[in-house]
Please model this.
Amino acid sequence: MTRPVTALCNHCGKITDVEYKEQKHPNDIRETYFKCDQCYYHYTCFVTDKKVRKMHKKAAQLRASRQASKLEELQKQINERMSRLKYNLVNFGRADL
Model:
């Protein structure tokens, strides 16, 4: 039996169970998030678009074929794109690039 993931809420300071949820946005953008059990503060974990999901599939293939150097570069691109998507969604309400 696995233990639930918990986090300390930066908003209210209480410990909360993390239950990941997914929300779809326009242009095939998907946001994975959770809310604090106590104050319902919305924490965006990560944001993906069609291109990121395609890159994730490519990364899985590279992992299977043990191509570490290509995988490292691809993972860097994935992280950069996801970071920009999340920044835009959190700060502007839209994740368009």
About this structure: Strands lie at 6-8, 15-17, 21-25, 29-35, 42-48.
